[in-house]
Protein: MinD/ParA family protein
Organism: Halapricum salinum
Amino acid sequence: MAARILLRSGRNYSAVSEASVLTIGGAKGGAGKTVTAINVASAVRSVGYSVVVVDADLGTTNVADILELDCETSIHKVLAGEADIGEAIVTTETGLDVVSGGDSLEYLIDADPAELRPVIDTLADSYDVVIIDTGTGLSHEVLVPFGLADGVVLVSTPKNTSIVDTRKTAEVVEKVDGTLLGVVVTRVTDDTDVDRVRDQIDLDLLGLLSDDPQACKTEPVVMEAPDSDLADGYRQLATTLIRLENDRKDADGDDQ
């Protein structure tokens, strides 16, 4: 199928009849939501899907920092109406497309989170999967990605406080008419009481990701440390999300 829109000259983007938009969120910083977004995107791309990661954590954008990217045009400029989305796409050495943020206070102030929806709609015309990395807390810029996504994935650690806050965030996702796919638990060790975590979360558990500092030295782990348990966990998570999205599309097709 031919792409419906060409975002960057000289590049052919394949489009699907219906793209999948997934938001990766978390109640607290440091749980690993950004790294999860990057690695899920990389794993999905590795099996043939066209993918773009959008850093919508407008206050503390860090996708570019983690991937050591030089982004001349930021998502802030796009949301401020100072640039087109095609200008903000940067491709990593591993082939992953990224729309990241900048550190200009001027554009941070002018960036309008409400403009994120048309930006995502444009990207969804050219990619099979759009993955949004969003911020923490309950600000407007966080709630917008929850409401516009086909599915929301929340990232938590095994700590009690993180789990409690994740459940509260899940309630917020529901209130903004978002679709919660489930929770991913990071930093799991041999000492983690998995049964306790399952019981406390009381939501669909999409995956348990091991705490592997050695594998985390470079990102994305699925590309740089593909044989690690952590990389395998990300690949399994990506497979689960693809399956859930395919099930959703099949159900939507049956309803029509």
Remarks:
- The chain has one domain: 29-255.
- The first helix runs from residue 33 to 46.
